[in-house]
Amino acid sequence: MVTFGLESWPWWLALGYLIIDLAVRIVSIIVVPRNRRPTSAMAWLLAIFFIPVVGVLLFLLIGNPKLPRARRRKQERINEYIADTGSHLNFGTLRPDAPDWFPPLVMMNQQMGALPLAGDNGAHLISDYQESLDEMADAIRGAESYVHIEFYIMQYDAATENLFHALEQAAARGIPVRVLLDYWANRWKPRYRQTIRRLERMGADWHLMLPVQPLRGRIQRPDLRNHRKLLVVDGRVGFVGSQNITDSSYNLPKNIRQGLHWVDLMVRVDGPVVASLNAVFLSDYYAETDRVPEGIDITSVESGTGDLDCQIVPSGPGFEVENNLRLFLGLLYAAKDRIMIVSPYFVPDEALLLAVTAAVDRGVQVELFVSEQGDQAMVYHAQRSYYEALLRAGIRIWMYPKPYILHTKSLTIDDQVAVIGSSNMDMRSFGLNMEVSMLVRGEEFVDEMRVVEDEYRALSRELTLEEWMQQPLRSTVLDNLARLTSALQ
């Protein structure tokens, strides 16, 4: 801590300051590293030692990545509900001849809080942004019992008018429409008031997720987010992926000025796995309302239009470990031929960086798809700080061109297994965000993913090590500083 100028202080004041300085250092060394990654602990200690007032205040505000104690107890009940629900579900017939490593991976997911693996599912990708919104609207129009819709961002605008109209029509027929949207991602964003008014007029049962409302007794770490994106209709049809319910510009003036548009990928699913998606929605609904809707039977499911094996893996600060990170690591180490990663925010921890570079050493082809332009400066520069190490390891990096933000979050290995959902491969998604991922086994689904990856590759340019080493010094400094801050969680 800074002690400059203490010689001009009264001796007793200077002594008091030094005692407090020493006490804060000692307490920090004891408290900060406990149950925390070494890199994260070191980043916090550096912040506290070099910018003491700011560092201590930030640590007190956001130093604990867990939910409040009362909410953690509620999450424990939710996890028990998910486990109990899974034991009563009919999960169809699984595909034969799974690779030796696959059943243990599925078991690990389930022990961490995932639903069991479900067979007899249909799953089809939707890569067109507006088409995805319209397909969800069509599914809602076919609702007979209920509509459950949970999205990180939900805005009523020209692009989503069809979907909101479908919700309105369902509500008018007496169909319960339950809506969850993240507090911080929506509360002060464009079109929030118009969106809430539209939901209230139609009679939707809507709630904000993870609200920070001290006057109402709802206090928690303010940078926690529920980042999940899912829709369930009647327990028969579901949607999951990376896209939010909003225009592809997010209606932000700065995005509109730059002509930025988001590129996303959603999956329409049917079959037993929809019950697992519904269980995730119901758990989040309970977390925000302290009640479970009546008349929802998720134990009665029908076979889907395909025979894919699917497993829903929720993750977030309510779980004991980083479920999504462990899933990704298990797949990366299982790959034998190729790994395709699409992530708008790729900021790996040590374990993930080792896994992707070790894969290359094993002879696995590894490709990473990222955006040429970033929408979040700190994450964008933190991600760039890893490019040299990745390129030197032999990983091919594809830069999706401006003015588009490649927002898809997917991982495919070899020709039989894929993961798609809301989870980025960065420390925020691993530790702070509530995410949902879907593990899929089936060559036909991976073939669909390959078509999308080929489209991304055709539109992108490959970043070479030679080009990267020409980066100006100022960019390198910014990247490295952002890399340090990425560990503050």
Structural notes for this entry:
This protein has 489 residues and is of the alpha/beta class. The chain has helices at residues 11-31, 38-50, 52-62, 69-88, 102-112, 129-141, 161-172, 183-186, 192-202, 253-258, 273-289, 323-334, 350-361, 377-384, 387-393, 427-431, 443-459, 465-468, 473-485, and strands at 118-126, 147-151, 177-182, 205-209, 225-226, 229-233, 237-241, 261-263, 266-270, 308-315, 338-342, 365-371, 396-400, 404-406, 410-413, 417-421, 433-441, 461-463. It has 3 domains: 12-62; 69-106 and 120-307, Endonuclease Chain A (Endonuclease, Chain A, 2-Layer Sandwich), CATH 3.30.870.10; 323-485, 2-Layer Sandwich (Endonuclease, Chain A). The strands form 2 sheets. It has a 16-stranded mixed beta sheet that branches. Helix 7 links the parallel strand 2 (147-151) and strand 3 (177-182). The longest helix has 21 residues, at 11-31. It is globular and about 80 Å long.
Uncertain segments of ≥5 residues (pLDDT<50)? none
For the record, the CATH architecture of the largest domain stands as 2-Layer Sandwich
Could you say which overall geometry the principal axes of the C-alpha atoms support? globular
The Cα radius of gyration reads: 23 Å
User: How many DSSP helices?
Assistant: 19
Major sheet size, sense and barrel closure: 16 strands, mixed
| SS content category | alpha/beta
What is CATH's topology name of the largest domain?
Endonuclease, Chain A
Report the portion of residues in β strands.
15-25%
What is the CATH class of the largest domain? Alpha Beta
Q: What separation lies between the terminal Cα atoms? A: 21 Å
